[in-house]
Every structure is written in structure tokens, then in C-alpha cells.
Design a protein that fits this description.
The complex is a heterodimer of chains A (about 475) and B (about 400).
Chain A: H1 6-22, H2 28-46, H3 50-71, H4 75-110, H5 125-140, H6 150-158, H7 160-163, H8 171-180, H9 185-218, H10 226-257, H11 275-281, H12 284-295, H13 305-323, H14 327-353, H15 356-375, H16 379-390, H17 397-405, H18 407-416, H19 420-425, H20 432-455
Helix pairs in contact in A: 1-2, 2-6, 3-4, 3-5, 3-6, 4-5, 9-10, 9-18, 9-20, 10-15, 10-16, 12-13, 13-14, 14-15
Chain B: H1 2-25, E1 31-32, E2 37-38, H2 47-52, H3 54-66, H4 70-84, E3 89-90, E4 93-96, E5 99-102, H5 111-134, E6 138-144, H6 147-150, H7 163-179, E7 184-186, H8 208-224, H9 234-237, E8 240-241, E9 265-266, E10 276-279, E11 282-284, E12 310-314, E13 322-327, H10 331-338, E14 344-348, H11 358-364, E15 369-375
Classes of the chains: A mainly alpha (about 475), B alpha/beta (about 400).
């Protein structure tokens, strides 16, 4: 079930809210059980068979964390708990997500004909395995205590707002809130506002950009003019940003309604002035996950330059692979790695001396090239698209059509890539008239979103495939 | 301040509740008139559907199709796109100058491909002609220019009309057909300087005047084969606009907000001789022009009541020749008009007809005249009526 569907908006979400808020706040356990039951139903709705797998991962994580904690100073037992968790989570990921890629590559490299099984990847597998691992890692490091109540571990991993498309919530972020949160009317109000903004971003912007980008990427390479190719790259960049950040907005908003405070996942990434800056602002929960649980444990920058570069390559290859079982994602990860290394060791100082506009342009162009690599899952398609970007073949017809068709989307999209609208939105925070305007604006966004949802069949979240 | 916030939340709660109850308890439509499709049925509960996840997908689909005030919402959304955003491309339609046109997309084959496609299409006609002649008949290919080709200049400059490709394709086909001795007429040559007068501006077909031209061409060709037939004049037929609102294949997608409107042209069925009719082997009293009640919308299926795999009409005038017409919906109004001029009119539409091939059909039901009607966008198509062998 996607958030931007009628099933969710008029059936599932109202039902959760009704059941949840009818229970007095003092019955915290009961409220948590309602959330857990609806979270499992939410997952069952989208992936009936995957529920058992997710519950198995949760069970392993629960026992691994307990084992680690109870092992005390016995390092071998602690490591056993950690290894079991790693093996199970990575095994599940490896089998369901990467077995096909592995076998196909093996067949191709060694000219074998091993049959590739048709494995259906459960929705959100990358998110719930990563959350489970982060919980056990944190217990292992002693950052958090193991949760005694298995239902709360299940609630943490399966909490429906962030279950299938993130953000990746660390256990430490919400550990205290699972049992001790104090959700009030202000939380509901703020959460609803955030949710509606996310819904609008998804339905009014991401889908519009996505439909146009899809057309351009599907064009025959021989017919794609260079301006069209660049437009396609930027449209896809806008689509993926508004799609993913919308989902994060909705997740954060719903979490807030139920009293959880998830960390921000995006910080205006397209205002970045370098690639390094971009990755501080894009999918923050994932990049910080890899930083804390892969890069630093591998030694980070503490073991000399060659090892640091090797660590960076490992982290970025894994980051790429996390996004999909296809080699273009690995290429995409390594592309960022090379750029980050270049900025860190060669270009950093020179970049800082450039005017801000040029630094923005530099970052944006490289970011959009990155999205082209990301979106072309077949290497010949990627080659064709990159060639179209740089072969300087004229033709503005399609570009003009797309621009004319989507004037409001481009204007609002460009504005929402910057912090300006939010500053305007929050202006006069304590003034009733400003609050009234905010509410009216959100109602307009909601009505337009319902119009768009009814009129649109193009409604699949990109991040569901991770 | 708190009051505003509480009102906001209350409004959302009330709106959601009303929307939910109206969606679940409101009247349900089985089909969407504007989209010309069946709406999703209520999903049936079964273990298999539940476990496979199909049940929930079906519910998503069902709710999307039956959400309260769906048609009104779709109309409002379209209004925004047309009047506020001023889009020229809406629901796969291009809003041209006083005409609605299909959006043909950005992909089209290389021109080199046109020649081979044209030759292959012409080659496929040879056995049909041979079969028609083997049973004592004559074969005619009647080409109708596509609506989007006729109105090609009405496309905005930045939207491809693909006319270059289609013209190349048509030229390749015509040359290949001539080389193979296929007798062909191309209606565009009969239409003079204003071919657009013979086409609908809200539908992808020609109008009844265009169909009349096709009918007249067939009659003239029949006479040229030594088989003279009475020709009904436009005055006799009383071709005139119907009063019902016309839902063409294009303007129906615009939920009554089309900037271009048009009336469907009708004729007077009283000028036709008495006849008996069978559709798909079943005897029927269906009229040649099926009109809804006054004020109700009418569409192109008014001619002959729409598409059928096989229609047989007998006027019981053995002195007149028998005619077999093959083709898709472009044949419908022509069939209706031909009732006035032929003894037996058979019509086959191979998008639906599955019983036998055309050559076998000709063996069983020899016709004096066999006419294949195709529109220029489909001269080289291989589906439906594109491959009759």
C-alpha cells in the first residue's frame, strides 16, 4: 500500500488514527499494540508472504540483542550474537535481493547456464534489515540497552510510516519514545501538516516530473535531442527528490502524529555547492548508517590514505548496491566515490574559491549525471543516454512541450528545492492570521492532491523497489 | 490560535469521514462513460487472493475506480489543466486549432522501415485479390486518410504530427500496391481542397460526408466493373446534424469540457429499402442508424450499432450485385449507406471475426465485389484487418 492511494488515505490511515486515539494515552502498551497490529497489516497488504520473513528477522534481532547484552564481558558470546544477526540479515538480503544478479553475472562471466530462480523481493527489505542490524549493532556497542519486550522490537522495525521506504530510523532515536512518548494535539496538528505537504510533493510534483522523465528516458536514442536529454536528466532528478523526500515527509509527519520524532532525511540537497555537500544533505539516514556501521568500523580515515580510499570505495560500492541489484547502481556508487575522493584530495580548495553560482552549477550538473547512471539499469541504455547528453544534437520541440505543460510544477518545484518556501510558511509563526493562511494553503494542497490522485494512474513510489 | 488548529483538524476529520462513507455507501457505476471502459468490480474474498496480495491490489483498484464523486473530480482536474495550466496535451489528446487530435508520441520508426513495411502490406493483399477473382468477383482497396494526417497543420509546432513518416509509409504502400496490380482508390483524391470538411474534429473517424464519399466511390467502381448500382444522393439521404450531443472518441475524454464541439451527422433511414439483418449469425432488427433518446449523447457506434465480427444484410434485390466489405469501424457508416445500392451486403471485421480466414470466407460466400477499407495510419498494420490471409 502506498501512502498516496485511496486505500491508505480514506481507509487505512483513518482506521489507525481512530483505533489509536480512542485509547486513552495512559494505556501506552495498548496504543503500541494497535500501532504494531496496523503496521503488520500495512505490510501484509503490500506483501502478504513477506510478513513471515520480516517477523523472522525481527525475532533474530530480538534474541541476538538479548544474547549480546546478557553475555556481559564474554566477547565470544557477544560476537556470536552479532554474527548471527549479520548472517541472517545479510543472508536474507543476499538471497532475496542479490541472488539473481549474482547468478546472472556468474553465467555471463563464466559462460555457464545456471538457472536463475524467480525470487520475488519483499517490499522494503533493505529498510527493515538495515534497521534491524542497526539495533543489534547499537546494543553491541553499548549505545542502547536491549529491548526486553519483543513486541517493541517488532514495533520499532515494522512501524508502518517508515517501513517500506524509510527513513532508516535508528533504535536509539525512538527507544525512549516507544514507551515514554507524550503525543498531544500539537503533535497531531504538526504531523498532519507535514503529511499533507509530503502528499502534495508526491502527487503534484514528483508524479508530474516522473511522467515526463519516463517519456524522455524511453525515447529512442536516435530521436533524443541534446536539450531533451538534459531536460530528462533534470526531470528525473526532480522526480526522485520530490518522490523520496515526500515519502520521508509523510513518514516523519505520521510518526509525529503518534508521538515519534524521526530525524530529517533531506536538507535541500539541490542547494549543495559540492558533491561532498550534496551527500551531507541527501538521504541522510542512509549515508550516516554507512558512515557509522561500515566506514568507521573499517577504519575510516585513521589507517592511512590508501586504506581510507579503499574504505571509501567499499562504502560507496555497497551504497550503490543497496539501491538495487544491478551493476549500474554499483557504477553509480563508484561515480560518487570518485567525485568525493577528487573533491577531498584535489578539487576541494579550488572549488571553494569559485563563485557560489558556479559551484552550484558544478554540483547540479554532476548530480544530474549521477541520476542518469542511476536510472539506466541497462548499460547500453546508459551509454546511449550519456552519448545523447554530449553529442550536441539540436531540437527543442519536446523540451518546449514539457516546459509548457508543466509551468506551475517547474515554478513550485524550483522553489521547493530551496528553504525559501518553508521560511515563508513559518513566517509569523505566532500570528493567528498566519496560521489561518497556512491552514488554507494546506487545504488547497490537499484538494489538489485528491484531484491529482483521482486523475492519475502513475502512482508507484520509486523507493519501493529498494 | 488553538481554535484555528482545532478547526483545521476537525475539517480534515469530517472531510475524510464524508469521503469514506460516500465512497463505500454511494451508488456504484459499472462503467465510465467518459473513459469508455468498465470500472473495477468489487473484489471477491478468497484465500488465494489474500495470500497472493491480489485481493489488496484489487481493492486499491476498486477504490480508485469508485471513489466518491469520481467523475466530478476528474472533470475538475481536467478544468484546471485546460483553463488554469492551459495545457495543449491532455489525456493523450492534442488541443489543435479547432480540432482534437491524437498525441502520437515521440517514437516512430526510421523512414527506411516504411518501404519494407509498405511492400509487405501490399504483398499481403495479393492472395485476397486472387481469392476474390477466383470466385468471380473483383477486389478494391479503399484507402482513407487518417484524421491526424488531414489535420496535420493543426498540431502546435512543438508537437510531432508524424505526417512525414505516415506520408512516406502511404507512398511506399501505394507504390507497392500498384506494382502488384492491386486496384485501389484513395479517398483523399476525391476530397478536393478541403479534406477536413469530411472529417470529424472530435473523433478519429471521417464524418458521414466522408463515408458518403467512400460509398459513392464504391458505387462508381462497381459500375466500372460492369455492375451498375443505384446511387442514393445526399439529398435523398438527408444528411444532417443530429440534435443529440456527440461523444466522439476524443472529446468524450474531456468530460464535457472540450473546447471543440460537433454534432454527429445522421441520415434518413426511411430512404432505404426493406432488409433483413444478421449480426454474428443472429437475426436482428437493429437499425442502420441507432439513435439514443432525445438529449442523450450519441457516439460513432450509432452507425450500424457499432462493430461486429460479421454482419449480413439482405435487401432481396437479386438484380443488384453482392458486396463484401472488410475493415474496422470506418466501414460502419459505409455499410449502412450501401444498403441502398446492393443486394447483399456482408461485412467482416477481423478484429472480432475468428471463424475463418477471408479466403475461406470468400470460398463459402463468393461476392461480386470485395472492398477492403483501411485508414492511412494502418495501411501497414498487421493486426486485426491488417493480415487477412
Amino acid at each position: 500500500m502506498v501512502f498516496s492511494s485511496f486505500s491508505f488515505l480514506i481507509v487505512f490511515f483513518p482506521a489507525v488514527c481512530l483505533c489509536y486515539f480512542l485509547i486513552p494515552r495512559r494505556f501506552r502498551t495498548l496504543r503500541n499494540l494497535v500501532l504494531l497490529a496496523f503496521s503488520l497489516l500495512f505490510y501484509f497488504w503490500g506483501e502478504a508472504r513477506g510478513v513471515l520473513l520480516m517477523l523472522a528477522v525481527i525475532a533474530v534481532s530480538y534474541f541476538s540483542a538479548l544474547l549480546i547484552e546478557r553475555a556481559g564481558e564474554r566477547r565470544s558470546l557477544r560476537r556470536l550474537g552479532l554474527w548471527v544477526e549479520l548472517l541472517v540479515c545479510l543472508g536474507v538480503l543476499g538471497y532475496f535481493k542479490y541472488a539473481g544478479l549474482f547468478l546472472r553475472t556468474l553465467n555471463s562471466l563464466l559462460s555457464l547456464s545456471v538457472s536463475v530462480p524467480e525470487i520475488i523481493m519483499p517490499i522494503g527489505i533493505s529498510f527493515f534489515t538495515f534497521q534491524s542490524m542497526s539495533y543489534v549493532f547499537d546494543v553491541y556497542r553499548g549505545k542502547v540497552a536491549a529491548q526486553r519486550n519483543p513486541l517493541y522490537v517488532a514495533l520499532y522495525v515494522s512501524l508502518f510510516p517508515q517501513l517500506v521506504a524509510g527513513p532508516i530510523v535508528r533504535y536509539e532515536t525512538i527507544a525512549a519514545e516507544i514507551t515514554g512518548r507524550q503525543e498531544g494535539f500539537e503533535d497531531v496538528y504538526q504531523g498532519l501538516q507535514r503529511f499533507i505537504m509530503g502528499l502534495g510533493k508526491k502527487l503534484l510534483l514528483a508524479n508530474a516530473f516522473g511522467a515526463e522523465a519516463e517519456t524522455i528516458f524511453a525515447m529512442d536514442s536516435a530521436l533524443r535531442a541534446t536539450p531533451t536529454a538534459w531536460l530528462g536528466a533534470f526531470l528525473y532528478g526532480l522526480q526522485i527528490y520530490f518522490d523520496f523526500s515526500a515519502y520521508s515527509d509523510m513518514a516523519i509527519g505520521m510518526g509525529r502524529m503518534f508521538g515519534f520524532h524521526f530525524l530529517e532525511n533531506f536538507n535541500y540537497p539541490y542547494t549543495a555547492k559540492s558533491i561532498t555537500d550534496f551527500w551531507r544533505r541527501w538521504h541522510i539516514s542512509l549515508s550516516s548508517w554507512f558512515r557509522d556501521y561500515v566506514y568507521i568500523p573499517l577504519g575510516g580515515n585513521r589507517r592511512g590514505l590508501p586504506r581510507q580510499i579503499l574504505n571509501l570505495f567499499a562504502v560507496w560500492a555497497l551504497t550503490g548496491l543497496w539501491h538495487g541489484a544491478s551493476w549500474n547502481f554499483v557504477l553509480w556508487g563508484l561515480y560518487w566515490c570518485v567525485l568525493l575522493i577528487l573533491e577531498k584530495f584535489l578539487l576541494g580548495k579550488a572549488l571553494e574559491k569559485l563563485p557560489g553560482v558556479l559551484r552550484h552549477a558544478y554540483a547540479l550538473i554532476l548530480i544530474m549525471l549521477g541520476w542518469v547512471i542511476f536510472n539506466c539499469t541497462e548499460l547500453p541504455q546508459l551509454g546511449g543516454y550519456l552519448a545523447d547528453l554530449f553529442r550536441f544534437r539540436g531540437g527543442f520541440d519536446h523540451t518546449l512541450l514539457v516546459l509548457r505543460q508543466n509551468v506551475p510544477e517547474f515554478l513550485f518545484g524550483a522553489a521547493l528545492c530551496t528553504p525559501l518556501p518553508l521560511r515563508l510558511f513559518r513566517r509569523g509563526a505566532d500570528k493567528p492570521w498566519a496560521e489561518l493562511l497556512r491552514c488554507l494553503w494546506l487545504l488547497i494542497v490537499l484538494v489538489l492532491s485528491v484531484l491529482a490522485l483521482t486523475g492519475s494512474s502513475f502512482n508507484a513510489f520509486i523507493y519501493f523497489r529498494f | 490560535m488553538k481554535l484555528i488548529k482545532r478547526c483545521f483538524v476537525l475539517i480534515l476529520v469530517v472531510l475524510t469521514a464524508v469521503f469514506l462513507f460516500c465512497t463505500l455507501l454511494g451508488p456504484k457505476q459499472a462503467e465510465s462513460v467518459y473513459e469508455n471502459r468498465s470500472l473495477a468490480p468489487r473484489p471477491a474474498l478468497s484465500w488465494e487472493a489474500l495470500w497472493s496480495g491480489r485481493l489488496f491490489q484489487d481493492w486499491d483498484h476498486y477504490l480508485s475506480d469508485h471513489v466518491a464523486w469520481r467523475d466530478a473530480i476528474l472533470r475538475d482536474q481536467l478544468w484546471l489543466r485546460l483553463r488554469v495550466k492551459r495545457q495543449t496535451l491532455v489525456n493523450d489528446l492534442v488541443l489543435g486549432r479547432e480540432v482534437l487530435l491524437p498525441y502520437l508520441g515521440e517514437k516512430y520508426p526510421e523512414p527506411e522501415e516504411a518501404r519494407s513495411l509498405g511492400q509487405a502490406a501490399a504483398e499481403r493483399l495479393v492472395p485476397i485479390r486472387e481469392a476474390a477473382e477466383a470466385w468471380g468477383g473483383h477486389f478494391l482497396y479503399l484507402g482513407i486518410e487518417g484524421q491526424s494526417v488531414v489535420f496535420r497543420d493543426s498540431y502546435p509546432s512543438y508537437i510531432h504530427n508524424h505526417v512525414a513518416y505516415y506520408q512516406k509509409l502511404a507512398a511506399a504502400f501505394r507504390e507497392a500496391a500498384a506494382e502488384r496490380g492491386i486496384e485501389a482508390r484513395y479517398l483523399i483524391e476525391e476530397m478536393g481542397e478541403h479534406p477536413e470538411d469530411f472529417y470529424s474534429r472530435v473523433d478519429h473517424h471521417y464524418n458521414l460526408r466522408g463515408a458518403y464519399l467512400a460509398y459513392r466511390t464504391i458505387c462508381a467502381w462497381s459500375e466500372a466493373q460492369g455492375l451498375p448500382v443505384p446511387l442514393l444522393s445526399q439529398e435523398t439521404l438527408k444528411i444532417a446534424p443530429l440534435s443529440n450531443p456527440f461523444y466522439g472518441s476524443y472529446n468524450r475524454k474531456l468530460y464535457g469540457l472540450s473546447p471543440v464541439t460537433e454534432q454527429l451527422l445522421g441520415f434518413d433511414p426511411a430512404c432505404m429499402p426493406s432488409y433483413s439483418r444478421r449480426d454474428n449469425g443472429v437475426r436482428t432488427d437493429a437499425p442502420l442508424l441507432a439513435l439514443p433518446p432525445e438529449g442523450q449523447p450519441v457516439d460513432y457506434s450509432a452507425y450500424m450499432g457499432g462493430d461486429f465480427g460479421e454482419t449480413v444484410i439482405r435487401t432481396h434485390r437479386p438484380e443488384l450485385p453482392n458486396l463484401l466489405i472488410v475493415g474496422d469501424s470506418f466501414t460502419n457508416p459505409v455499410e449502412a449507406l450501401c444498403v441502398g445500392s446492393f443486394n447483399e451486403i456482408r461485412s467482416l471485421d477481423f478484429r472480432y471475426y475468428r471463424d475463418m480466414s477471408l479466403t475461406e470466407y470468400l470460398r463459402l460466400h463468393p461476392a461480386d465485389l470485395v472492398v477492403l477499407i483501411r485508414d492511412s495510419l494502418n495501411y501497414t498494420g498487421t493486426e486485426g484487418n491488417g493480415d487477412l490471409r
